[in-house]
Amino acid sequence: MNAIPSKLFVAGLVAAGLLLGGCGQDKHELTADGFVLPKGNPERGQQVFLDMGCRQCHVVAGLDLPAYEGVSALEIELGGKRARIKNYGELLTSVVNPKHVISEEYQKLLNKEEAARGDTAMPDFNSRMTVAQLIDLVQFLHGRYEELVPDYRGYRYYYGP
Ligand code: HEC
Question: Residue with the nearest Cα to atom 5 of ligand 1?
Answer without folding.
Answer: 54
